[in-house]
Predict the structure.
Amino acid sequence: MRLFRTGVVALAALTLGLAASAAAQRTRTRTRASDAIRIPFERYVLKNGLTVILAPDHSTPTLAVEVYYHVGSKNEIAGRTGFAHLFEHVMFTGSGNAPYGTFDRLTTGVGGRVNAYTTNDETVYAETIPSGYLESTLWLESDRMGFLLDNPDSARFGTQRDVVRNERRQNYDNPPYARFQEIIPAAMYPAAHPYSWQSIGYVADLRQASIADVEDFFRRYYRPPNATLTIVGDFDPSQAKRWVAKYFSDLPRGEPIARPDVRPATVTREQRLVFEDHVQVPRIYFAWPTGGAKNNDTYALNVLASILAGTRTARLTKALAYDRQSATLPVVGVQREREDAGEFYIWITPRPGHTLGELEATADSIIERFKHEGPTAEELQRAIAGLEFDFVSRLESSAGKAEVLSLGASHFGDPGSYRTQYAKLKSVTYADVKRVANTYLGPGRVVLSVVPEGKPELASKPEASAKVTLGPEGGQYIMGAR
């Protein structure tokens, strides 16, 4: 017995030693990976709470200025959707000291580029400009942050509301298949959950929006403590600090901001839906709830999506589009993570002579086999290499660097968190990918069949699928009975 116990202890010690060695190797790998990319930056905070990030780079005579507001559609409430995105447009209608047209004249008018976007979690304003125009750009952004309401104009507000409604028609209502972006989250999350609607909002809510609503939204969220100002490119940091202090330091801090408590979705059983759209060919979507950007599983889920779908050698693409010739390209797989929750999507379009039910059965069998086997070493290496390329490519431009630094500061409390994210991506293992496949790709999912109008029988398992219809005046979707 003593010899046996000694052997067990020795074996345990050896196992622990190997595990410790492997852990140390992973740590060294992460360190080397994160050292491979580095953006020198300085971060500081003004007394009014504004976070400032400076990252000089004199390789080209241009620079990027980004103002990142930590407010998106998740800060809205049901019945008042679309305000965050509407406000993105209002921010270009002129402010107290910069009348309408001034912003364009001092940015695109001098050869620069302007971009803005709204998501569930943030609203971002970004300019790429010649390096000699930093001061004027900072003045413009500070005037919008501090004095937008000094120059209200009901006519311009009405125009921007109509622009947003037209944008909705272009991106959601009219394009074939586009409504899946709204239908699946509306089915996956509870009705009042802020991720159950898209940042564009519903037409009925936009129609009711007033200047008073927009002004209240501005006072609540467009304040220094809720913003990150990032400057990347060809500039003098000392001069930039003086200008930042000159134009931003006197803006009031305002009241504390209450953050919504946003939880990931919980889907305990399969929900089957069918939506009749103006399409010629049906398509099937699968969606599973996953974690948000702060959940470490997101790295393995992105690798899993790349292994299952996308490239010619991806498992679903190869089997369905090439081997069986039953699906058209592309076969899509994507892990969509927001700040607090996410979804894992797969969608497939059949070739003539093949059905959604056939595609679903084949896809399910391939996924189940993968959950049992896990990825091959080649699949894992190829997927990580592709994601690594995409990650690093974002850092090629000053605008990309500004976006990465701002996001890190706002969501993770560290502008340099991109290095940690890069290292975690590089260190995803076979066991990680197999585990997340088994953890998330289970029976709790949403299956949506999008079919031509008047042909619900083309859905996969139509007898078990609830019909989705549009709410009154473009409001929330109605999930009907089977």
About this structure: The longest strand covers residues 62-69.
